[in-house]
Design brief:
The protein is built from five helices and nine strands, in the order αββαββαββββαβα. By secondary structure, the chain is α+β, with helices and mostly antiparallel strands. The protein has one domain. A hairpin with a 2-residue loop joins strand 6 and strand 7.
């Protein structure tokens, strides 16, 4: 049996076992937000809210998040805008869970052309955070997408690592709360690097304020 296939099978068994423990041992956990996401600041450093997004009921019914935030921000003095989306889940025991942008973006017509991870150094953080970095396109439009999962002050890019931490946290702390955080910056004149810098600058501005809204 090839080594990679054997590794995949072992990982599957481990995840199934952890899932059994998760649903067996975690009871009644529901960690509320420190504050509703609607109270998230409209001013983030030199970034100001330009538009408050509204999610349609059909989208909310599919998402099943306990709280959401959808906004467009623009930097003072001009420059490219960036959008912020946050979906917070108090618990994942009842089938509620973040929908990975890897699946949602293609479903809405955006095709990924590049994917990877980037490390972003942040003010006030000892270590850079690692987040997913996607370049997606739909027709002539292109955008840079950064996203990650955040729970208990932990930032995770990998969906697999997020699931493992979910199980471990549910066993140790009786918690399965998490948030999906996504930042999108449009690409202008084919300059992917500039859009990536815009998205990363916006992450630096929003990260510390967001920590005050998500349970640590």
């Amino acid at each position: 049996m090839p080594a990679d296939r054997k590794h995949a099978q072992v990982l599957s068994v481990v995840l199934i076992a952890q899932a059994v423990l998760f649903y067996t041992l975690s009871r009644g956990e529901a960690v509320p937000l420190s504050r509703p996401l609607l109270e998230f600041p409209s001013q983030l450093g030199n970034w100001s809210m330009a538009q408050q997004g509204v999610l349609e009921k059909e989208v909310l019914d599919v998402l099943r998040a306990d709280d959401t935030l959808s906004r467009l921000y623009r930097p003072s003095g001009g420059g490219a805008a960036a959008s912020l989306f946050v979906a917070y889940f108090k618990t994942q025991r009842t089938g509620q869970a973040p929908h990975s942008p890897k699946n949602c973006l293609p479903g809405s017509g955006w095709a990924p052309s590049e994917s990877g991870v980037v490390r972003i150094a942040l003010p006030g953080e000892a270590e850079p955070i690692e987040v997913n970095h996607y370049i997606v396109s739909r027709g002539e439009a292109r955008s840079v997408v950064l996203y990650w999962y955040q729970s208990r002050g932990r930032v995770i890019a990998s969906e697999y690592r997020a699931k493992i931490h979910l199980v471990l946290d549910s066993i140790r702390y009786h918690r399965s709360d998490t948030a999906l955080v996504r930042v999108v910056a449009p690409v202008f004149k084919g300059d992917d690097a500039a859009a990536s810098r815009t998205a990363e600058d916006f992450v630096r501005a929003l990260f510390q304020p967001l920590k005050e809204f998500l349970p640590n």
